Amino acid sequence: MPLIPEEPQIHESAQGPRATPASGRTAPTPRPVPGPRPAAPSRPGRPGPVRPAPPVQRTPRDAAVAKPGPSGPPAAAPAPVSATTPQIQLIPASLEGALDAAEEAVDLLLDSGRAPGEVLVITTGEQHPWATHELSFGEASYWAQHEAGDDVFYADASVVDRAAVRPVVVVAVNGGPDNAAADALPLALSRAGALLIVCGDPQRINSVLGAGV
Fold first, then answer.
1. What does the alpha-carbon distance between residue 105 and residue 139 come to, in Å, rounded to a whole number?
2. How does pLDDT run across 149-199, given as a tens digit for each residue?
3. Is the pTM of the predicted complex or chain greater than 0.90?
4. Which single residue of 11, 125, 144, 202 could bond 32 by disulfide (Cβ 3.0 to 4.6 Å)?
5. What gap in Å lies between CA 81 and CA 147, rounded to an integer?
6. Residue 70, by phi and psi: left (phi above 0), alpha (psi -120 to 50) or beta?
7. Radius of gyration of the chain from Cα atoms?
8. Integer Cα distance of 16 and 8 in angstroms
9. Cβ contacts of residue 56 below 8 Å, gap of 6+?
10. How many whole angstroms from its chain centre is CA 12?
């Protein structure tokens, strides 16, 4: 079902403020309100990144053993818990402003407590400067940082199938071939554990979402 971009927000559970279409960096991005997270280390390219602590393993409670009655059937096993479908949020932006809107979304996510290693940023057109810089040292070094999982990772839509699942995926629909968004959004959705944020032209994005994303 097509998304309605009038009230975009960057959170899993709470309604954020109304956002206006982003053109360049002139429009503020709605502030996310996710749940509490560990303090965020610095972004890629900023001095002194700190590897976030690994998530704490939760110990499941011991399941209670049901005792069937003398003549009744045994208790049925609990139904398996279905996987959570990621929430999709749209931030209206022009082709020229989509990357800036994605950057603002990432900044707000980190400011709200998201760890950098929880965020993957995908571009459909021109690569993010960080990705261009890191790829200049070779793909092995570039993907090693992805495997480390301790910083925001920026990838071109053409290599998203190599990326691992992260809680939040941000897509900047900033150009590329005509089918770039149609190809990138389903892959991005498959890599988003909890939240998919799409920055771009609402009409173009909704036409893809309505086609079955």
1. 26
2. 999 999 999 999 999 999 999 999 999 887 888 889 999 999 999 999 999
3. no
4. 11
5. 28
6. alpha
7. 20
8. 7
9. none
10. 11
